[in-house]
Amino acid sequence: MSLFDTPELLRFRQEVRSFLQEHLDAHFVHETRGGLHMEREDMARWQAMLHSQGWGAPHWPVAVGGTGWSELQRYIFEEECAFADAPLGDVHGLFLAGPMLIAEGSDEQKQRYLPRILAGEEFWCQGFSEPNAGSDLASLKTRATLDGDHWIINGQKTWLSGGHHADLMFCLARTDMEAKPQAGLSVFILDMTDPGISLQPILTMDEGHSVNAVFFDNVRVPRQNVIGELNKGWTYAKELLARERVNNAQAPRTKRDILELERMSHELKAADGKPLAETAWVRRKLAALTVDFIALEAAALSVIAEQMQGKEPGPASSYLKIRGSELQQRVSETAMAMLGSAGVVLGQKYGTGLLAPEGRGWAERHFFRRVVTIYAGSNEIQKSIISKVILEM
């Protein structure tokens, strides 16, 4: 009997499945499966539907709009959404800005921002990385200088995911120029329409627009827009990045992709006309992916259980991020090998008529997933964290 097969959890799974069947229209499925970079309108519409159901943020505390679900219920919900090709919504607001505001924000900030995140009315982006401060975040140069009741922010951020969709940014800037690098950082809330903020798109190798560069030229930010304590930004950033790494493991979505590969293996033919599922190399690939996924899922569930008890994921997020990101890349590499010439065209831009239907979306994911071992702290950095904190080397 599976851990998920209790009568209560089976009823819950059916409830989620019924909701998805009723509300998830063909457009959502088409956009989710066909590409990685959805339009804001689609993400906002889906988030509003979840919010109306009371499911807008299952991982938040009940007092601020959470569901009160167990960790297994939350995982079932994410799994069913992945199987149904439901959109992800505003990841930066729901999984990063929201939890940081819940933990560190003032009452006024919580009242102002949390309800709009839940309802899909405002989107967020994360202003952390800079041209010379990616994984080495403590070396960032963007600075904030106090001027009466405002902070004046100058500098630059890059790889700003979703910045062109965002209304607001949580931005890490240096507020104490004399302190050691980790000690003089603070987190600010910026309105993306503020004078002095300029955004430039960056196209990734999948020919999609998801990331941007942003420049701050004397941007005036009210003093009350500091999140938490001044000069505690490094602590908050570490906690936030740990949450991001757990989310980036993407276990339910990876499970859906592996099941899709299994389906494709029975439909696609080898050179001798037999299904790919009957070839030794495909069987080996799928078996290895399945075994590694089972290990990833078990680790993800243990971390989710701790999060539901109010604990931060800590260094465990590093090995989840490493294994999850590597598995995502292996899944898309396997898909490309199975598809052959049917998988090499970017379907979104050039039209699905140029390639087999099975190939649509895989080239985009394959190219974009080169970045999953880099963002949220490169895997090399995660290995250093594991060796230092877990192995005490």
First-residue to last-residue Cα separation: 40 Å
- Overall 3D geometry? globular
- Any guess at the CATH architecture of the largest domain? Up-down Bundle
Largest sheet: 4 strands, mixed
Low-confidence runs of at least 5 consecutive residues: 349-358
Rg calculated over all Cα atoms: 22 Å
Strand order of the largest sheet: 1-4-5-8
CATH class of the largest domain: Mainly Alpha
CATH topology of the largest domain: Butyryl-CoA Dehydrogenase, subunit A, domain 3
How many domains is the backbone divided into? 3
Helix share bin: 40-55%
Number of helices: 13
| Share in β-strands | 5-15%
Mean pLDDT, all residues: 88
Strand pairing plus helix content: what structural class?
A: alpha+beta
E-strand count? 8
What is the CATH superfamily classification of the largest domain? Butyryl-CoA Dehydrogenase, subunit A, domain 3
Order of helices and strands: HHHHHHEEEEEEEEHHHHHHH
